[in-house]
Amino acid sequence: MSRLNPEQQLIDDVLFGRLTRRALLTRAAALGLGLAALERLLNPLGMSVDAAPAPAPGPAGRPRPGGATVWAAESDPISLNPVTNSAFQSTQGFEHSYESLTGYDSRMRIIPALAERWETPDENTYIFHLRRGVKFHDGSDFSADDVKYTFDLVLDPRGPAIWRTNFDQVDRVDVIDRNTVRFHTMTPFPPLLGAFAILRSSAILKRGAYDGNTTTQIVGTGPYRLAEFVPKSHLELVKNPDYWARPLPYIDRVTFKVLEEEDARVAGLRSRTLDYAFLTPIGEQRLRSQRTVQITKSPRIFLYCFIFNMMRKPWSDVRVRQAVSLAVDRQEMIDKALSGSGTFSGPIATGFGSWYLSVEELKRRWYRQDLDKAKKLLKEAGVPDGQEMDLLVTSFGGSGFYPAAAVVLKDQLAKVGINVKIRQVEVGVFTREASPQGNFNYDAQINAFTPRHDPDGFLWARFYSKNPFAAGYNNPKMDDLLLQARTIIDPVRRKFLYDEAQRRLLDEAPMLWIGVDNIIEGVQSYVKGYSQSPFTRRDWGLKNAWLEK
């Protein structure tokens, strides 16, 4: 007898590919679930009722192929190596040219990509059936050998993959035949399908590609070929005429101009020298009267936080971290650094499926400023008045949050006797110094949890003690919670474990989580078919867009 209730069994069968779409709908109907209810049930898994990508939303009319367009990149991609990059702006640079076995549509549902389908004969085995006739940008054929080459590189503990933790439950990858590949996992591993789609150390490389230049060159299978990349200047893409999802993409040529200053992006939209730009709330206000520019806005999964270096004193003391959290007025920080356009969040980003803690619970238990209690905790911990904090800051992603939030934190912590020393550096220096390679050279840093593929992605890399980015955090109970949560298929049990993990983290304050913001984009009215992504991914939107001019 199954230990799962009927809805849990349905989720289990969907996750392991045991149902066709027709069988799924039949089972759902028998349980009294309509399409909307079925989508809500599957939403925590990132799964879709659809078996294939749905047409891109947009105005009525036939898409027009052809044309060239210029879009703003709000930050420099730095490097186009899809294996070694931790910076989200690098993903935004190569996401139009690389693909993986699965992908995301505009609603961030997991859909087939280079794998047209998959099956799971048991909980530790995934068999992927690859699309036939797919070619790399250099004209060579894509096959299972390329998948194995990529993931042998990613799984190597001594290898270069920065996001190896997304796949560390994969034991090995076997080639069954030219068009079929098998992944063996050490435990049941529900994050796997999303780990492919997120494109972080999961983009499929051509066999042998890593021996060449993957920093400024791309040989992928995606809808756009890389024509030219000039760091800190521009990225030029041309349509891939051999793309497997023809007639996509519609636009022939796309230039992304690196415009980190919002003034330049706003001016470009006004003058029509830009067709697209990411905006802050201030930029949105400045363009309100520009009738030719369509501004779209919706919540996005982009979690701002302050990260402690717990290998340094006094930040290794939980009382000190709790005191800092009590001294912070998060609403003031959102008002001043995000122009009020934000929502409180805990360790898993508010709005991410159903995995996050409610704003009401955050306010009630952890997010109330208490300066007297903060001072008491600092005194108990022996922290002297005037204790300095080396705060590492950069400005990336088109957001003005980071430098503004640094100033707010400095003012707030001065009230409890902590002297924040703001050290603002350029992005490349920040990326190095905030990593194991730079020996975590900071007391605290301001960062953001950009797109993650699973609740596991928000917690595992930073809070499982054996991972390189734990930065001194070590809690055996948390290790046990996270190990269980990432290897249990039942989403109800997973939700319970992740809720418990978040509450423990909020009590211990290894980070100061602030909130999530909104995605605001300006697009010229003649750009049709583009749809926003709550992850600020532009690959789906661009390949489905066309120009009506």
Give structural attributes.
seven-stranded mixed beta sheet; globular; 4 domains; D-Maltodextrin-Binding Protein, domain 2; 549 residues; four-stranded mixed beta sheet
Q: Which helices and strands, and how do they pair?
A:
Blueprint: H1 6-15, H2 21-30, H3 35-42, E1 68-73, H4 88-94, E2 102-104, E3 110-112, E4 115-122, E5 125-130, H5 144-155, E6 170-177, E7 180-185, H6 192-197, E8 224-230, E9 234-239, E10 253-258, H7 262-271, E11 276-279, H8 281-286, E12 293-308, H9 318-327, H10 330-337, E13 342-344, H11 359-365, H12 371-380, E14 387-393, H13 401-414, E15 418-424, H14 427-433, E16 444-449, H15 455-463, H16 476-485, H17 491-508, E17 511-524, E18 527-528, H18 539-543, E19 546-547
Structure description:
The chain has 18 helices and 19 strands. With 549 residues, the protein is of the alpha+beta class. The chain folds into four domains: 40 residues, no CATH class; 136 residues, Dipeptide-binding Protein, domain 1 (Alpha-Beta Complex); 106 residues, Periplasmic binding protein-like II (D-Maltodextrin-Binding Protein, domain 2); 215 residues, Dipeptide-binding Protein, Domain 3 (Dipeptide-binding Protein, domain 3, Roll). Strands 11, 12, 13, 14, 15, 16 and 17 form a seven-stranded mixed beta sheet that branches. The protein has a four-stranded mixed beta sheet with strand order 1-10-9-8, with no helix packed on it. It has a four-stranded antiparallel beta sheet with strand order 4-5-7-6, covered by helices on one side. The longest helix is centred in the last third of the chain and has 18 residues. The radius of gyration is 23 Å and the shape is globular. The termini are far apart. About 2% of the residues have low confidence.
